[in-house]
Specification:
Helix content: over 70%
Number of strands: 0
Low-confidence stretches: none
Distance between the termini: 21 Å
Shape: globular
Radius of gyration: 19 Å
Length: 190
């Protein structure tokens, strides 16, 4: 991909707007990033987006920032990663700064409390959409091991209350082992 000033502006403005108008955490921004960078701009494909989300989730730090850094790096190297990071971090920083000045007024407001409570339902719906869409992509691949890891991770965390960090580490290690085995068998094409 050719690195032009327009590329950096598109990367910055896209991540800035996604971050500014996304409420509810990292998993809420994932479908919006997929729509922008996979469907609209075509900078990455669906499978690569799944990989970036997996890496973002297993890396320390907020998933939205991690994913933006990885997309930025994929699009324009280190300068792209920095541009995407600034674009993603700047809106919450500005919003929190403004809110901190008015904290006492917001703290007592029933209207603000009601709006925040109602937003939870929307956040839940967006996260459910991510799970269904990305999970369906894994199921459609008809690869036994990724499906088994996905189902095992779900069962471990939902029914046996296994710590999320342990589920991520074990899933990552299993994925690496299976991928390495597939490469050695000559079937490592993705």
């Amino acid at each position: 991909m050719k690195k032009s000033p327009g590329l950096f502006w598109t990367l910055f403005s896209s991540t800035f707007l996604l971050s500014a108008f996304t409420v509810g955490g990292g998993f809420v921004i994932v479908p919006l990033m997929r729509k922008k960078f996979v469907e609209e701009l075509g900078w990455i494909d669906q499978e690569e987006m799944l990989d970036l989300v997996a890496i973002s989730q297993s890396s320390p730090g907020p998933i939205a920032v991690n994913a933006a850094i990885l997309v930025g790096y994929r699009a324009a190297g280190l300068a792209g990663a920095f541009t995407a990071m600034v674009g993603t971090v700047l809106p919450p920083l500005l919003i929190i700064t403004v809110i901190s000045f008015f904290y006492m007024a917001f703290q007592q407001s029933r209207a603000v409390a009601a709006v925040l409570w109602a937003m939870r339902a929307g956040v839940g719906a967006v996260i459910l959409e991510v799970v269904i869409h990305m999970g369906w992509d894994i199921v459609k691949s008809k690869k036994v091991f990724p499906i088994a890891i996905m189902v095992g991770a779900f069962v471990a965390s939902t029914f046996f209350s296994v710590d999320t960090i342990l589920v991520i580490v074990v899933s990552g290690l299993l994925g690496m082992a299976i991928y390495t085995w597939e490469l050695r068998q000559g079937g490592g094409e993705r």
